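User: Can you help me understand a structure? I only have the sequence.
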Amino acid sequence: MEKGSLKSTIAVSLTNYLDAGAIVAGASGLTLWKDYLGLSEMHLGWLNFISANCLGAAVGAIIGGFMADRYGRKAIYTYNMLVYMAGVLLVMLSVSFPMLLAGFLVTGISVGIGVPASWTYISENSEIGNRGRNICISQMSWGVGPMIILLLGMLFAPGGYWFGGVETLAHAVGGDAMGGGALRVFSSRVVFFSLFVVAFVAWNLQRRLGESEEWLATVRESGNKTSGLLANIRELFTCGTAVRTAVFLATIYLTWNLVASVCGFFLPHIYETAGGVTNEMANWMSCVLWAVTVAVTFVCSLFIDRTSHRCIYVMGLVTAVAAWLVIVFSPKLLALGMSGMAVLWLFNILWGIEGGISVQVFYALWGSELFPARFRAGAQGLMFFVVRGLSAVWGLTFTHIYGEHGEGFIVAAWCMIALLLVSLLVGMVGAPDTRGKSLRQITEERYGADV
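Assistant: Let's start by predicting it. Here is the structure, written out as tokens:
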């Protein structure tokens, strides 16, 4: 891997850290904000609905994708982190529900704006034999983010090892009289401050990046003109190959993400209610899951550019289905003498392995390979908008299937398996052969030399 490619990949990958970090930071602090502001379950549902996990990111993605095609990839990296920092700052300083809601929304929109541009930029600046590796490095940030934020959340939380420092800081800022919910929620403010710091570092690194040569070449070939938003959308939907590609990618990513988004936001809660473990143990299990995901993604980065993508893709989804089959057949495993904790850990490790070779790795890779440069980011933004938007709706549906105390968990698990099987079958049939080819070569093979 060339130094320039690695350097730009690391800088851009911080966007993924901040995306996943915002989701987990929001989820880990919900109870604290609920107590502090006196929020209802409906309030919490709205926070999830418009956050980086769902609608906020969906809206941002469709805006950011087409902006990256119109104004260049560098334009996104020059300004977007400033939007993210503003959103995080709103959350940190929130003293009311509208302020907190606005912070979650602004942060989510910024996350969505950055995601399609980041995957596009990484692919366009990678060497032919390193695209898969660079995407994996980017995906590792998606695992490192939740792992670190969960650790900080546990250490800073009331009763955590570092809460004494949080308490001292809270009294220094708010006075010695600060107590109760106001004191406890200060730990969540500190966690969001860590995201603010990383976002500031990311902004300083990303605004120094050069523009994508692939995008510049496309602009030169079109007479130094770029199409507007509506023109790019029209071109995307009038090109049969592009439409078929978008349907394929949206299908495999949506069916997988409906499962992954639930796990990302609700898994600690599921461990507590269905598994009967403590909150601390549930969070530690989630940390281990993300550590496994990071390790497996790193291993995948070493051979993804030399191994059949279809083979790795199938392996990941077979592992995902196996994880949920453990839940479905948990009563039989318990009858055979396996402990409930062992069942939970088996699921946890299998789902962590799946995360390292997940559909998202290939969606990011194929999504940046299979579209022409002139609407590459826009196409990804549009698909991301559809996927995260429907994931928001599914999150509300899942809670009804699951039940208040996990009584519908087996039914929910079968739903997860069905979704994963769709992603497995569609991806296995439609997996493209792009290894060892330049982006220009892939474009000419799919769209013709004059595209």
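Now, to help you interpret it: The mean pLDDT is 86. Residues 231 and 400 are 41 Å apart (CA to CA). Let me know which part you'd like to focus on.
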